[in-house]
Amino acid sequence: MKNELLDVALEAAKLSGKVLMASYGRLKNSQIRTKSKNDFVTEIDKKSERLIIATIKKHFPDHAIQGEESGVTHGKGTLWIIDPLDGTSNYIHSLPIFSVSIGIRQNHQMKAAVIYDPMHQETFWAKKNEGAYLNNKRIHVTQVSLLSNALMATGIPFRARDRFDEYMRSFHQISLGCVGLRRYGSAALDLAYVACGRFDGFWELDLSPWDIAAGSLIVQEAGGIITDLWGKENYMKNGDTLASNGLIHQALRRITSKIFTPSLKDKQCRLS
Fold first, then answer.
1. Alpha carbon distance 157, 187 (integer Å)
2. Residue 62 buriedness (CB in 10 A; 0-12 / 13-18 / 19+)
3. What domain count does the chain have?
4. Are residues 151 and 245 in the same domain?
5. What is the CATH number of the domain that holds 216?
6. How sure is the predictor about 158, in pLDDT bands with cuts at 50, 70 and 90?
7. Per the CB 3.0–4.6 Å rule, which of 102, 121, 205, 257 could disulfide with 9?
8. CATH number of the domain where residue 134 is located
C-alpha cells in the first residue's frame, strides 16, 4: 500500500458508514441513551465504533485508539482518534448531516485524516504534507479576504452553559460582520467544508479531540489555519476552535480573543 495508515482509515470509515446508513431513519427510542444534557449516544454509535476499532486492530494491533464511546485503548507510538458518528442528534432526528471522523497522530502531529459523509458519498481525506482531497479531487480553502464577504459556520455550545453568554456575544458580532452563518451540527463536517471552500471559517467551544483531530489536518493541508480562539495551537487541549481560510483569521481572532475567557479544561489526547 502507498500509505497503509490512510488506507486502513478509509476502509474503516467506509465500513462504519454502511452501518450508519443501514439504520438511518429506523432508530427506536430504546436504542437511544442520554449521556448528559444535550448529549446522546445510540446503539449505532457503539456498533460503528466497535467496527472501526476492530478494523484498526486487525492491521495495527499495537496502536492506541481513542474513541468517543470507548475511551482510550492503550498502545504504542501511533494514536487513532475516532468519532464513529459525529452529528448524533442529527442522525437521531433523520437529519442527513453526520459523518465518521478518523484522525491518526504520531509524534504529537496529525499524519493522516479521513472524514466520511455516507449520506452524500463524500470522503474528505489528507496526508501530512501531501494535500487534502474530496474523493479524488484536490481541495483548497477559499480566497475570501474580508469577513464581510465570508460565509461562516458555528456550533452552539449546549454542553458549556457557563460560557453561553460569551458565545452569544461572539455570535452577534460575527454574524453582523459576515455575509451569512450556518449551524449544521457536525463539527467534523464544518471543518471539512472550510477545507473545500463551502465555508470560509468556523468557530466552536468545548469540542473534544475526536471532533477536531481529522478536520484539523484536512483544513491545514487545504491551505487553511486552525487555532484556538486566541490564536494559539491549543485547540486539542481546550477544545475551543477557530478555523478559517487564513485570510480572515486575524479578523475573527480579534473578535473571539476579546470576548472569551480561556478555558481551564485539558482534553488533550495522550499517548501511553
1. 11
2. exposed
3. 2
4. yes
5. 3.40.190.80
6. confident
7. 102
8. 3.30.540.10
Query: In this predicted model, which residue has the larger pLDDT, 264 or 222?
Result: 222
> Which range marks the domain in which residue 43 is found?
4-138
Do 134 and 10 fall into the same domain? yes
- Check pLDDT > 60 for residue 36: no
Q: Could you tell me if residue 18 is inside a domain?
A: yes
- Percent of the chain past pLDDT 70, that is, above it, reads 89
What is the structure's pLDDT at 34? 60
Q: What cell does 40 get?
A: 446522546
Residues 6+ apart with CB under 8 A from 37: 158, 159
Residue 251 domain-assigned? yes
Q: What share of the chain is helix, strand, coil (3-state, %, to 5)?
A: 40, 25, 35
DSSP character for 74?
Answer: P
Helix orientation angle between 249-259 and 164-177, rounded to the nearest 10 degrees: 150
What is residue 258's three-state secondary structure? helix
Tens digits of residue pLDDT in 71-106: 677 777 899 999 999 998 899 899 999 999 999 999
CA distance 19 to 84: 10
Q: Verify that 120 and 219 share a domain, yes or no.
A: no
Other Cβ atoms within 10 Å of 186 Cβ, number: 28
Beta-bridge mates of residue 80: 65, 104
pTM (2 decimals)?
0.92
Which grid cell sits at 259? 470576548
